[in-house]
UniProtKB/TrEMBL annotation:
GO MF annotations in UniProt: FMN binding; oxidoreductase activity
Domain NADPH-dependent FMN reductase-like: 3-140
Native species: Flavisolibacter ginsengisoli DSM 18119
Pfam families given in the database record: FMN_red
InterPro entries given in the database record: Flavoprotein-like_sf, FMN_Rdtase-like_dom, NAD(P)H-dep_reductase
GO annotations of cellular component type: cytosol
Protein name: NAD(P)H-dependent FMN reductase
Amino acid sequence: MHNIAIISSSVRIGRNSHRVALFFQNYLQQNALATVDMLDLYLYNFPVFDERLRMMKDPSPEILDFAQRITKADGVILVTPEYNGGYPASLKNVIDLLYPEWKRKPIAIATASNGQFGGTQVMTSLVFSLWKIGAWVVPAMYPGPKVQEVYDENGTPNDAEGVNKRAKTFVDELLWCIEAGKLMAKK
């Protein structure tokens, strides 16, 4: 069984994108698709990093834990809100913290917003940042429009059938990329 890390990237009080992260955690576990490792940046409470991990003289145990969990993951679901057309500084902070840990790592992007477009405006800048560090961005996305209305605080959607159908397409693409990456690594 694959190990998928879910990065819940918002650190704001009252964040709604975390509902989408919880939904994917529940979805993967309930359908026995993968083991899940939730990496909640709110709980990490990282400072702004002034250097990449590999250049740090004395990284904290939390930094080493985060890096090890990303390394161990077969793939990542990155859940991000859209703030004024961009992604949160907390996410940029951890993307820039690591480098070899992201190399060829399949990353599926789920976006969320309170509006009708579901955070899709954040995709361009986020994909570019991930591409620049060598991550493998999965060619599927999961926009979460009106997230505060669609998911409750535990990640349970009010339209389970419709949300699960979209999630299946998204997760299937991530799982395919994980398998393809493993096959290529054997060559």
